[in-house]
Automatic annotation (TrEMBL):
WYL domain mapped to chain residues: 146-212
WCX domain span: 243-316
Region Disordered, residue ranges: 215-235
Protein's recorded name: Protein pafC
Amino acid sequence: MSAAGLRPSADRLGRLLNLVPYLLARPGIEVAQAAADLGVTQRQLREDLELLWVCGLPGYGPGDLIDMAFDGDRVTITYDAGIDRPLRLTPDEALALVVALRMLAETPGMANRDAIERALAKIEHAAGDLAGAPVAVRMPGSDDRLATLRGAVERGRALRITYYAQTRDETTERVIDPMRLLMVEGRAYVEAWCRRAEAVRLFRADRIDALTELDEPAAPPSGAEPHDVSDGVFAPGPELPLVTIKVGRGGRWITEYYPCEEVRPDGRDSDEWVVSLRVTDLAWAQRFVLGLGPDATAVSPPELVERVRDAATAALDAYAAPIPENA
């Protein structure tokens, strides 16, 4: 059975093991109320109850199986077959919860931090020795940098930052008006109004080389809207350049890593694929294609083809140049 098929079965088993103690604590509860409490449909709950009827102790005869009584739309467990305790966490599950809660507690800009810390304290108390497991949770970027960013957002202060923009392979200095801190795909970002670009921008915390909190308040324009990052940081739109490249078998991984508009085989008998995707600018696309090496060929637009050809030619010329004797 595939992993996808195993997951629903595992979920149902956990639900069934918790269902008996839940019903024991609420004799005569309405099916609709129980379904709402457990987060399932009434149909699913009734199917679970029908399955419980044939579960129980070895022997599987009268007095061995779980039994219940129905009174209209109300249900009461009349025999629990010994399953009278809620499902307990395994050591791995408890440790996973501790790590997840520690991650949430470290997340910049996370609301309800007190509630997270209270839940973490309870889980750590229940986990016992596991709470002291040698597991450290840290967000990308230095703690000092994140603390400064968090403080600027909370105090509503503008920041002067030195930022490395990977797409353009350049470092710039700019003043930003922070709006919020957020985590996307495991990385910390500050979302801010960039006075240099005159637009809302996301700045990766680990690419901020230096930052200084200014005395002036952060003042993003009233029309500055936060990005929708539910599908990730990069949201390709029709306003961005569309590039097409041809990749061999060794370069097909890009179709799983980057959002592509079109992927098609380059002929019936070819191992190459033709891939079209949106990019922030052609300079990034040039470095991207060159980085793929012999597994990629630029197809369009013509400017990208020319950029890649010129850069590759310059590199080959540099290799062909004789090395000075005194080098």
